[in-house]
Write a structure and sequence with these properties.
With 179 residues, the protein is mostly beta strands. It is built from no helices and 16 strands. It is elongated.
Length: 179
């Protein structure tokens, strides 16, 4: 028989000046990351429960669950939130070395778009959230060069459409500044 352990995670909000706990929210699964929107609207969690990842959105004032959505992904690579939407990148389980990016509305948990990223990527480095784009850092191994090649992809936040791609020199480390 398979033995399964249920992990209990706790999200808490405390008053910064007094340390007094304002609310607590317990959930089952492993928490990957949580983000509090700069405007203070939501706390977002990506939790692995059972066989898949879930987006859990909590109201920052009350700790009440606003949305709980199955992300239908297995290998979560990136998770970003901007106060309105959450952005995820999963490794596609069917063809090797391909990723799927998607966006979900925080207030409802509704999926807004999904984009398959083509390019034979083998990994995913930290992503950057800008005003209009999500920047993905996806290195690929080029057999012709026999080296790692950095690839930076810009996805439009509203549509998920790829609006730009920069491929660097083999073995280079991508550096970028965001305004």
């Amino acid at each position: 028989q398979r033995l399964r352990a249920k992990l209990r995670e706790v999200a808490q909000l405390a008053d910064a000046s007094t340390g007094r706990q304002i609310w607590t929210h317990q959930h089952t699964g492993m928490r990957l990351e949580n983000t509090i929107d700069a405007r203070g609207a939501y706390v977002t969690l990506a939790a692995f429960e059972g066989e898949s990842w879930r987006l859990k959105v909590l109201d920052v004032e009350t700790g009440k669950l606003v949305a709980d959505t199955d992300l239908e992904g297995i290998w979560l690579k990136q998770f970003l939130a901007d106060g309105t939407n959450a952005y995820f990148v999963f490794k596609d389980p069917s063809p090797p070395n391909r990723f799927i990016a998607s966006a979900y509305q925080l207030s409802t948990g509704k999926r807004l778009w999904e984009t398959k990223l083509e390019g034979g990527f083998t990994s995913m480095f930290p992503a950057v959230n800008t005003r209009d784009h999500v920047l993905l850092n996806c290195p690929t191994f080029r057999n012709d060069a026999r080296q790692w090649t950095p690839v930076l992809i810009a996805l439009d936040k509203k549509t998920g459409t790829e609006s730009g791609r920069i491929e660097g020199s083999p073995a280079a480390t991508p550096t970028y500044a965001v305004d």
